[in-house]
Specification:
The complex is a heterodimer.
Chain A lengths: L3 E12 L2 E7 L2 E3 L3 E5 L6 H8 L6 E6 L2 E2 L5 H6 L2 E4 L11 H7 L7 H14 L1 H5 L10 H14 L4 E5 L7 H16 L3 E6 L2 H7 L2 E6 L2 E7 H6 L1 H8 L2
Parallel strand pairs in A: 4-9, 4-10, 7-8, 8-9
Antiparallel strand pairs in A: 1-2, 1-3, 1-5, 5-6, 10-11
Chain B lengths: L1 H23 L4 H26 L7 H19 L2 H27 L8 H19 L10 E2 L7 H19 L2 H11 L1 H6 L4 H27 L1 E2 L6 H14 L4 H17 L7 H15 L35
Classes of the chains: A alpha/beta, B mainly alpha.
The structure holds adenosine-5'-diphosphate and magnesium ion (MG).
């Protein structure tokens, strides 16, 4: 058993009387890619929002052994958990460089920040070409790259990604996914939320299936691809 | 080099003129008074632009902060200081007014943690109304009749000096790490939090700086008119400031300077028309907005107000990574 980076214990998220996430427990180990798949409205986004302190929740969330209750969202980012939100959250009127710079808002390690720009421009050469451009004028794929780049700039060692393939052509989505695989090989732990189960299952080491706020299945990516239930509900075959 | 030199020459020339004009009586008193008004209005517009233009909130009660600064500084110079010492200590009275307004800014910033847009507008509107009725009911400062006895301490050099300070502080703030945080709140507040920006701290700071300068403008205003009453700081006054900001263009220092100047001049030029002014002025505004819907400057900035390092393609405050600017 590896080192558990994220662990949730009976996590619940409610909006008023609506329970979006009903008592789920899961974990992510160091160096893993874990996918959380489920249909629209299953509670995937709510789960991520709870992890990164963007919403109140019941139960317990711990990150690198530390209980996150009461820790402000911007502090959680500082601890190394970077959340790429649904819809990417790009600052459209700011340039690519400004977007990246914002993610270093709390960082005081100037030398490492400079090295991180090099690293990110290496991974995403297209961002380097477009660094002076307003982020709003980037294509969807480039915006997703920027969103991931920004998360890395915040010194994220644990990446939460909310539907990174949304709005992208299958080809572009594939490109983003291979970049994620690359990042993972370089040491970044990833928790991936997807409706696009096919690609997510291929990429992930382990996977949880969420249905109306409850984990109904879990297993390795391979196991779940072969699972008839998953095939029928999520892979459309 | 040239680009760095010109603003310094202009500032120096401005200072010399601001002393020379009253000293040698180069312009008549009425024109001097309008110049001082323009300075005060620039301070007001710039300070509101920080909240409405750069941070993207909608604060509509700016005159409330102004009144705090006006009353606090006036009480200090009239009641706490002798006439002779007031002349020397006037800058401190103005600062005290600014600090008082900034404390109120702190209070208004707190609701901005939870609401924004129209709802925050209502909060600031209510704040403006509350502070006006509070002032109307304090007999010690004259209640609804107002407060007088101030010497005319706001001279042209004083007004010019405070305008420069305001421009300098707001420019440096906007192009700092915090300033980038302010812009990110305008763009997408949730993403801003997720990018490790401490949005509460940024909002608090922006409101404090903004209301401080509104208070400073109030102090200058009180010692120009030598008479203040609560009605001067009502919603109409707040609306005037809003108009200057949106007329000049949001998110632009040059815009606020232009907006304040044009609006102040228009008000004066149209003064002989008396009641017709209130017909013509709104019409001018409507036409301006039709042809330049984003204000005169429209989010653009004059290069002079952009720090040298940030000039290349307006990379606000991205320092220390110069090699990426080819
Ligand atoms: N801010 C909110 N207020 C009320 N209900 C919400 C809110 N956000 C999400 N929900 C509800 O919670 C449920 C789960 O939503 P979400 O976590 O966004 O699911 P997913 O990301 O899997 O599509 C849905 O029924 C949705 O309508
Ligand atoms: Mg979602």
């Amino acid at each position: 058993m590896g080192n558990r980076i994220i662990e949730t214990d009976n996590l619940t998220v409610s909006y008023g009387s609506i329970a979006a996430v009903k008592v789920i427990s899961f974990h992510v180990e160091q160096g893993e890619i874990v996918a959380l798949i489920g249909a629209n409205g299953a509670g995937k986004t709510s789960t991520l929002r709870a992890l990164s302190g963007m919403t109140t929740y019941g139960g317990r969330v711990s990150f690198m052994g530390r209980d996150l209750r009461g820790v402000a969202a911007h502090k959680i980012v500082g601890m190394g958990m970077a959340h790429v939100p649904e819809g990417r959250g790009i600052f459209g009127n700011l340039t690519v460089l400004e977007n990246l710079k914002l993610a270093t808002w709390q960082r005081r390690d100037k030398k490492e920040v400079a090295a991180d720009y090099d690293r990110i421009f290496n991974i995403f050469p297209r961002l380097k070409e477009r660094r002076q451009q307003s982020a709003g004028t980037l294509s969807g794929g480039e915006q997703q790259m920027l969103a991931v780049g920004r998360a890395l700039m915040s010194k994220g060692t644990m990446l939460l990604l909310d539907e990174p393939s949304m709005g992208l052509s299958p080809l572009l989505a594939q490109e983003i996914f291979s970049m994620l695989a690359e990042l993972n090989r370089a040491g970044t732990t990833i928790l991936l939320v997807e409706q696009n189960a096919n690609m997510a299952l291929r990429l992930a080491d382990r996977c949880y299936v969420l249905e109306t706020g409850i984990i109904v299945l879990e297993g390795t990516g391979k196991e779940l691809i072969g699972n008839p239930q998953v095939k029928e509900a999520y892979l459309g075959t | 080099m040239k680009a760095r030199l010109w603003p310094i020459i202009l500032i120096a020339a401005g200072f010399i003129l601001s002393f020379a004009i009253p000293y040698f009586g180069l312009l008549d008193l009425y024109v001097q008074m309008i110049l001082i008004y323009i300075c005060i209005n620039i301070i007001l517009a710039l300070s509101l632009n920080l909240i409405n233009g750069y941070m993207g909130e909608f604060s509509v009660g700016h005159a409330g902060f102004m009144s705090a600064g006006a009353y606090i500084s006036a009480i200090i110079t009239v009641k706490c200081l002798s006439s002779a010492s007031a002349a020397w200590l006037f800058p401190f009275a103005v600062i005290a007014g600014g600090v008082g307004a900034a404390l109120l800014g702190l209070i208004v910033a707190i609701p901005s943690f939870r609401t924004r847009g129209d709802y925050l507008a209502i909060v600031t509107l209510a704040f403006n109304m509350i502070i006006k009725s509070v002032l109307e009911n304090i007999d010690a400062v004259g209640g609804a009749r107002g407060f007088l006895g101030m010497d005319k301490l706001t001279t042209l050099p004083v007004a010019f000096f405070w305008t420069l300070i305001t421009i300098w502080v707001i420019r440096n703030f906007i192009y700092s790490n915090y300033g980038r945080g302010v812009l990110s709140i305008r763009e997408d507040e949730i993403a801003s939090d997720l990018m490790s920006v401490n949005t509460k701290q940024v909002k608090l700071l922006a409101f404090v700086i903004s209301s401080f300068f509104a208070g400073v403008a109030g102090g200058l205003f009180a010692h120009l008119l030598q008479f203040i009453n609560p009605r001067m700081f009502d919603i109409i006054k707040s609306t005037d400031i809003l108009i200057m900001v949106y007329l000049g263009g949001i998110g632009s220092i040059a815009g606020s300077i232009l907006g304040a100047t044009v609006y102040t001049l228009l008000l004066e030029i149209l003064r002989p028309l008396e009641i017709w002014r209130m017909v013509i002025m709104p019409l001018i505004l409507i036409f301006l907005m039709l042809f330049r819907p984003r204000g005169i400057m429209g989010l653009k900035e004059l290069t002079w107000f952009v720090p040298v390092l940030d000039r290349i393609n307006s990379n606000r405050g991205v320092k220390g990574i110069r090699k990426w600017f080819s």
